[in-house]
């Protein structure tokens, strides 16, 4: 493991875990180009993740999981994304939400314990489907057009969700829906059935293997106990750091590709590897500056969230800043890597072209840049002089 990876490893347990994840990442890297080209879902990657115990990393010890911290989640996601960004981002929604449910108490205990048991014993996964074409991202306060109607037996849910990551592999998911008779929005645990249809709409520039298709619900049934109504502890959104961790992993992969290229490419007119050229060294230095500063912000935010539970509700500006810094720095790292490699970087026979497309998706994952900047401005204005 290189010095770059070792920088944020604190003990032997973390070192061993990341070595194991690195082995998975190497396997996934061999499959990534095929799934990217086809836009296909990497079912075999998730079988490997299940076998390796990755799906239960954030499940509590009491349910048979590893109960890793947010800091360790960031480590794991960063390392996995080094091999395949799509797989890392997709599974990140699962392990991130399992961490969120663990610390927030959002779900009723019976539902949560059943989910944890199924994750550990069966490799079940979870995600929340909330975005809709007409209303946009729920992070911007949109009210869903999906509706839930109460019946004697439970709820009938009708609507269409977009950006439904992991939809090809889930046997259950959470969906947000508007309840007309209560004039409120709630979440419901829905299981797949003949009333749930996946429409394969996911054909995008990057992150093509996340299976983020549309999910259509036509009076899909949710039991009377499937309404998510537990009391929620505000944890500040720390679990969303799985997103920037993923894009950091992609940027590190781009950096390593450019380094290897610079040390091995020897055009006739140079007389040695292009790594000896001052301009290339300047770009390599810029990459290091972008990577190292971004990672310091990311890991500091995760470590503080783990350490200071009482401050978590007030950490949204800091956590949002971590996502903003990491995503935008990752974009610049990949761009610099492509400048070093030159025209070859545009070839679909090499991974830099995929890294370039994948990393841009980070701009459209929550929290979005403008939301983060507004949050930081509000935090500054509220500060007492």
TrEMBL record:
Top-level enzyme category: oxidoreductase
Residue span, Acyl-CoA dehydrogenase/oxidase N-terminal domain: 26-98
Alphabetical list of Pfam families matching this protein: Acyl-CoA_dh_1, Acyl-CoA_dh_M, Acyl-CoA_dh_N
Keywords of the record: FAD, Flavoprotein, Oxidoreductase
EC numbers, comma separated: 1.-.-.-
Cofactor(s) required, per the database record: FAD
Domain Acyl-CoA oxidase/dehydrogenase middle: 130-219
Gene Ontology molecular function: oxidoreductase activity
Residues covered by the Acyl-CoA dehydrogenase/oxidase C-terminal domain: 246-361
Protein family (similarity comment): Belongs to the acyl-CoA dehydrogenase family.
Entry protein name: Acyl-CoA dehydrogenase family protein
Source organism per UniProt: Paenibacillus lacisoli
